[in-house]
User: Which sequence fits this backbone?
């Protein structure tokens, strides 16, 4: 969704910035041309040429124009389609929008020759008839033709670091498998417990071969290790279930912790008793009571910070305890494993907590946890896991400021007065998106550097003290060498058209990134050609960071990262560099 909204906003830059460059906005054409460095075609001619040379159709273009035209022409009682509602929603958020500007956009679209407009019209839809609403079920909003460059938001790549289990003892070479013997043989005890030991009263299975099928003819002998290391027979057990390859039995409930040995004695049909090999049976201390998590304080904290886990039955003598985090909000795990005893097989993040006493543990939240809610569980040694508790990883707040503009090479022909530069941004944070543009920064000659005005420099969030980033942040920056027109006045149009395009694509349920980008890119190119002309567009650069990227970039003593964007073009178009900073606010 995020990347889809990002693309929508980028589309709007041409619409937003260039409407006021038209001669019809109060200046005679001759006067406008006298103020510009390049004598280009009229806006409609530029659009027609851009459509003709394009390798792709662009159905979204026509749908946007049709929606604006219906919104401006029909009374409210006749506008009841999802796209009409998209227009009305945009008007509610932008009540001061200049409708004459929107009407001018529609008129320029209508002046295109019919064969040109056909390339901007979805199949089976007559966009000249505003009384005919667009049917969302039958309209195909997918462009045809050559593929376009894709913009991808940074993705969280999960890595499973669970260690491989120890080799299966059943696959080891049977030391007597090549001997032709009929004696019983114990291969393993299941479940395999390694060095942890078994519990008194636990049901186990002896796997092997040459056992008797009749359980009364199998006797499991338990030997206990005595002082000095020798073993003495403790008891004989009758299995509950038997087969030639497995014997199931329950251990005595009064077995004391210690080291034991097991042997199977099988009574054959001729009365002969055959004895199996001996296998080790460790019996562990009774497990301690399961730990209990009562609270985590603070319950909402930043990744990498410390919290206290309050509860009961924490084993202070062990020093440390494992703690696992399981996401609740569908957030990705950058590093994961599947060893959590309370959620076997599920991806979790594991870390250590320092046990302070029987009721408190100190925990440093893993720095790789993305913002959101998590379920937390702990385990002491080999005991039972605790109950699940909930905690929240708070999203960090960031500010992105653009600091200055540096002219590397003024556009040709270089003359007195220099370039006039306008910067436009599209900002996407998680599922929110908006746009911002500047007025003209004038008088750029080779080597000149001009600082952004205070009102322009704060890009994320504009006019605010920083914003939260839970998943990702992207900022698309477009630089224009402005020929004429009131650039600052375009800011209202930016917000309106941005909201309208976003609502249109939501109505069509366009959320697959590849399809949305493929559809949006040709629209951007045509709008720039239409309203500003390709020579005036010095390029678009998109910065995109995941929440973890931002955390790593600002992991300095000043919580600050400095970067730059280079817009390198030919001598004719000019080249510029923009400096920006990212500030982390905690």
Assistant:
């Amino acid at each position: 969704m995020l990347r889809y909204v990002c693309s929508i906003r980028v589309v709007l830059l041409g619409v937003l910035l260039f409407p006021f460059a038209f001669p019809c906005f109060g200046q005679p054409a001759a006067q406008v041309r006298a103020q510009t460095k390049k004598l280009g075609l009229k806006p409609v001619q530029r659009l027609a040429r851009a459509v003709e040379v394009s390798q792709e159709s662009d159905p979204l273009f026509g749908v946007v124009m049709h929606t604006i035209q219906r919104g401006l022409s029909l009374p409210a009682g006749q506008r009841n389609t999802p796209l009409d509602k998209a227009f009305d929603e945009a008007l509610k958020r932008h009540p001061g929008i200049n409708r004459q500007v929107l009407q001018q956009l529609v008129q320029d679209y209508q002046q295109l020759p019919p064969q040109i407009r056909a390339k901007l019209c979805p199949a089976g839809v007559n966009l000249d008839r505003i009384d005919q609403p667009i049917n969302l079920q039958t309209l195909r909003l997918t462009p045809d033709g050559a593929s376009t460059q894709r913009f991808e938001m940074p993705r969280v790549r999960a890595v499973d670091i669970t260690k491989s289990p120890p080799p299966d003892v059943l696959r080891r070479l049977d030391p007597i498998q090549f001997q032709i013997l009929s004696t019983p043989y114990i291969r393993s005890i299941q479940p395999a417990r390694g060095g942890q030991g078994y519990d008194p009263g636990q049901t186990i299975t002896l796997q092997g071969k040459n056992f008797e099928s009749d359980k009364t003819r199998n006797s499991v002998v338990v030997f206990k290790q005595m002082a000095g290391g020798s073993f003495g027979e403790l008891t004989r057990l009758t299995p509950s279930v038997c087969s030639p390859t497995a014997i199931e039995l329950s251990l005595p409930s009064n077995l004391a912790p210690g080291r034991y040995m097991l042997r199977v004695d099988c009574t054959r049909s001729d009365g002969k008793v055959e004895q199996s090999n001996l296998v080790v049976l460790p019996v562990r201390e009774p497990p301690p009571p399961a730990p209990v998590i009562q609270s985590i304080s603070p319950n909402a904290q930043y990744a990498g910070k410390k919290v206290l886990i309050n509860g009961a039955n924490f084993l202070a003598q062990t020093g440390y305890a494992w703690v696992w985090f399981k996401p609740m909000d569908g957030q990705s795990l950058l590093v994961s494993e599947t060893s959590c005893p309370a959620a076997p097989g599920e991806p979790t993040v594991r870390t250590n907590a320092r046990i302070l006493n029987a009721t408190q543990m100190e925990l440093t939240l893993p720095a790789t946890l993305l913002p959101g809610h998590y379920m937390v569980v702990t385990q002491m040694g080999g005991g039972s896991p605790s109950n699940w508790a909930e905690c929240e990883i708070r999203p960090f707040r960031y500010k992105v400021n653009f600091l200055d503009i540096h002219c590397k090479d003024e556009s040709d022909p270089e003359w007195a007065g220099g370039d006039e530069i306008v910067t436009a941004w599209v900002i996407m944070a998680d599922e929110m998106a908006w746009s911002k543009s500047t007025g003209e920064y004038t008088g750029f000659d080779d080597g000149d550097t001009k600082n952004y005005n205070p009102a322009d420099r704060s890009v994320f969030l504009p006019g605010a003290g920083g914003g939260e980033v839970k998943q990702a942040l992207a900022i698309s920056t477009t630089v224009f060498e402005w020929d004429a027109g009131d650039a600052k006045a375009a800011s209202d149009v930016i917000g309106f058209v941005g909201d309208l395009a976003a609502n249109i694509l939501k109505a069509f349920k366009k959320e697959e990134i590849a399809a949305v980008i493929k559809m949006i890119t040709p629209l951007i190119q045509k709008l720039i050609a239409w309203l500003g002309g390709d020579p005036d567009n010095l390029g678009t650069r998109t910065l995109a960071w995941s929440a973890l990227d931002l955390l790593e970039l600002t992991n300095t003593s000043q919580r600050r990262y400095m970067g730059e964007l280079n817009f390198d073009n030919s001598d004719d178009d000019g080249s510029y560099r923009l400096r920006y900073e990212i500030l982390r606010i905690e």
About this structure: The two ends are 27 Å apart (CA to CA). The chain is about 20% helix and 35% strand. The CA atoms of residues 427 and 434 lie 5 Å apart.
